[in-house]
């Protein structure tokens, strides 16, 4: 089938509004938001329904054309980018933005894959409920993308990641069949729980088109503190102390290095350091409760007083109102963008046991500084679940291209250290194409064989997002 034949038949399935073939209109779908990955495509297809997705997948299978599912294109590992051949089809879910239903009694919301995460949060709030997934790209990332990478964000400590927040899925399989698993059940013990195969699979086993997600009671009181610490070990000690005193009211616990904060203060307009004095580490601590007037400020102040008594905390401020809360979260959420102003940003998303964080940071920092004297290490993340974003910026005044050329070498430093603590080289960003091959070094060979077997069963022609997640055998 020629390209013209393919596009003609695709147009007959999705209409003019659902097909893009012009180079200038396709460009936004063929480059990721950081311009770190780029590809080419025969067409960008934008189905408006699950039936249209299924028809497109069937046609592409018949034509032997690979399909690359894409959500909000906010990923960091190139998982939603086509290759450079120009023969693949990008299947964007950005027209599938329907909220199919909200059930406050069952505490579920059913949404299509193209719905923006922030929209789900807002619809839930209008029903007096909470959808707790929260991350920096929530205004542009989609539920399908969140599911494909098993997104985590800042609320994992209390609510879990997308795997924990999902009850049911609707998926178009690589052969075009539709699996309707949209059940809002907390208990369904009838064999294999298939949804977990597709969550985190980055579109390699099928196209997620809709999901039933869990809702929670709305938060009606909140307390937030910015705490200065002498070390990562102090952060581990502090989270244990806060957990012991506050229980499951502890919703967020984010750590960041002074280097991370310096970049935000330098490049984010209006940001300021509320503590004044320079400290090596900081955490953002947040408590929440479903009860209004739950006295969380007092509870948090009690925990911090004990932290000072134990010499765990060096300084702290409890936010005095919503504006200050937003300002504190802006310091945390602004790190990734601010780092881009400092030249190439080599991003790593790793996880180790919480008990190993301090030793991991010490060992990894030492190895990186030995490899590149003057390297600026931007460490931050969700310390409550052991997930650190271990990003690297070049030494001041050094050459951009020379630093980029060492990306693979420096990634190995971070990943070798992660592996030595029985950690994972991807906590929430996925593998995509950036970690596809290196994962073979760090994942058990039997586990990889099982994953290849599952891929072969679902997609024997390897036409569903090929070249992602699985290393070449």
From TrEMBL:
Domain of life: Bacteria
Family: Belongs to the FAD-binding oxidoreductase/transferase type 4 family.
Organism annotation: Blastococcus mobilis
Parts forming coiled coils: none
Family matches, as InterPro entries: FAD-bd_oxidored_4_C, FAD-bd_PCMH, FAD-bd_PCMH-like_sf, FAD-bd_PCMH_sub1, FAD-bd_PCMH_sub2, FAD-linked_Oxase-like_C, FAD-oxidored/transferase_4, Oxid_FAD_bind_N
Domain FAD-binding PCMH-type: 37-218
Name this polypeptide is given: FAD/FMN-containing dehydrogenase
Reported cofactor(s): FAD
Entry's Gene Ontology BP terms: respiratory electron transport chain
């Amino acid at each position: 089938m020629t390209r013209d034949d393919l596009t003609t038949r695709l147009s007959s399935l999705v209409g003019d509004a659902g097909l893009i073939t012009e180079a200038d209109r396709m460009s936004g779908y063929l480059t990721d938001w950081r311009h770190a990955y780029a590809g080419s495509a025969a067409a960008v297809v934008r189905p408006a329904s699950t039936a249209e997705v299924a028809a497109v997948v069937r046609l592409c299978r018949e034509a032997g054309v690979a399909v690359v599912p894409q959500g909000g294109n906010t990923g960091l590992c190139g998982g939603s980018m086509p290759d450079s051949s120009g023969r693949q089809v990008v299947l964007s879910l950005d027209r599938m933005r329907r909220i199919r239903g909200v059930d406050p009694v069952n505490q579920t919301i059913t949404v299509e894959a193209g719905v923006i995460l922030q929209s789900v949060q807002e619809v839930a709030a209008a029903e007096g409920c909470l959808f707790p997934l929260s991350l920096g790209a929530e205004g542009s990332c989609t539920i399908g993308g969140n599911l494909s990478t098993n997104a985590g964000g800042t609320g994992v400590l209390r609510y879990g990641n997308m795997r924990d927040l999902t009850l049911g899925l609707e998926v178009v399989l690589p052969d075009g069949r539709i699996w309707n698993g949209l059940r809002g059940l907390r208990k369904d013990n009838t064999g294999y729980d298939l949804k977990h195969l597709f969550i985190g699979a980055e579109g390699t086993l099928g196209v997620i088109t809709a999901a039933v997600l869990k809702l929670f009671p709305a938060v009606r009181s909140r307390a937030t503190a910015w705490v200065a610490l002498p070390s990562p070990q102090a952060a581990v000690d502090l989270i244990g102390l806060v957990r012991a005193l506050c229980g499951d009211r502890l919703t967020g616990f984010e750590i960041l290095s002074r280097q991370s904060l310096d970049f935000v203060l330098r490049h984010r307009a209006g940001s300021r350091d509320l503590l004044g004095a320079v400290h090596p580490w900081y955490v953002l601590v947040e408590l929440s409760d479903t009860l209004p007037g739950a006295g969380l400020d007092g509870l948090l102040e009690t925990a911090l007083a004990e932290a000072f008594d134990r010499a765990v905390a060096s300084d702290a401020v409890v936010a005095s109102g919503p504006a200050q809360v937003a300002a504190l979260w802006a310091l945390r959420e602004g790190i990734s963008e601010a780092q881009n102003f400092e030249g190439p940003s080599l991003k790593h998303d790793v996880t180790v046991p919480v008990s190993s964080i301090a030793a991991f940071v010490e060992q990894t920092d030492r190895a990186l500084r030995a490899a590149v004297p003057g390297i600026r290490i931007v460490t931050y993340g969700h310390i409550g679940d052991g997930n650190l974003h271990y990003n690297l910026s070049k030494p001041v005044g050094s050459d951009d291209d020379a630093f980029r050329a060492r990306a693979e070498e420096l990634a190995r430093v971070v990943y070798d250290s992660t592996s030595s603590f029985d950690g994972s080289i991807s906590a929430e960003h996925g593998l995509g194409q950036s970690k596809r091959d290196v994962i073979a070094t760090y994942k058990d060979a039997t586990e990889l064989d099982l994953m290849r077997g599952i891929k072969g069963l679902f997609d024997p022609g390897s036409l569903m997002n090929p070249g992602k997640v699985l290393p070449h055998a």
